Amino acid sequence: MDARLNFSTGPDAPKAFKYMMSAGQALKDMPVPATTQELVALRVSQINGCAVCIDMHTKEAAAAGETSVRLNLVAAWREATVFTEAERAALELAEEGTRIADAAGGVSDEVWAYAAKHYDEEQLTALVVLISFMNLANRVNVITRQPAGNYEAGQFH
Fold first, then answer.
1. How far apart are CA 115 and CA 34, in angstroms?
2. What pLDDT digit, counting tens, does each position of 104-127 carry?
3. How open is the CA angle 6-12-18, to the nearest 5 degrees?
4. Which domains, ranges and CATH numbers included, belong to the chain?
5. Which helix (H) or strand (E) element contains residue 72?
6. 156 near 18, Cβ under 8 Å?
7. For residues 129-141, b (16+ Cβ closer than 10 Å) or e, as one string?
8. Burial class of residue 86, CB neighbours in 10 A (0-12, 13-18, 19+)
9. Closest among 65, 74, 80 to 94, alpha carbons compared
10. Tens-place pLDDT, residues 28-79
11. Ranges for the Carboxymuconolactone decarboxylase-like domain (predicted)?
């Protein structure tokens, strides 16, 4: 499959893509564990069907030491016993924050309270920004049909 757009060509695309990637990189420094960030990014990408982001975040998580069992169970995290309560809260927040149209009212008070039980305000801010950023990245990549499979861990660092 060929991408509809190449973000490394043209007068404006490389600059916009550079800023977007810089924002993504800045998120990695936020006060949420790296493994939780990768699990959230992966789950949002699964929901949105973003193959290139699934490829990226699966490989980044594995490079950071995440196990294949946990990575394979992210899509079914509710039924899996391998995630901590904090990770489950982050994954639930990611799902409701991504499926806003499906949830009619957005993120429910119950899901927010569950997340707030495990994360402080700074960490909640980081999760909200990460979820929002991943939805942006997923949409850019899905709309332009960016191909998956060739990502190498650390490629954008």
1. 17
2. 678 999 999 999 999 999 999 999
3. 75
4. 33-143 (1.20.1290.10)
5. helix 68-73
6. no
7. ebbebbbebbebb
8. middle
9. 74
10. 889 999 999 999 999 999 999 999 999 999 999 999 899 999 999 999 999 9
11. 14-96
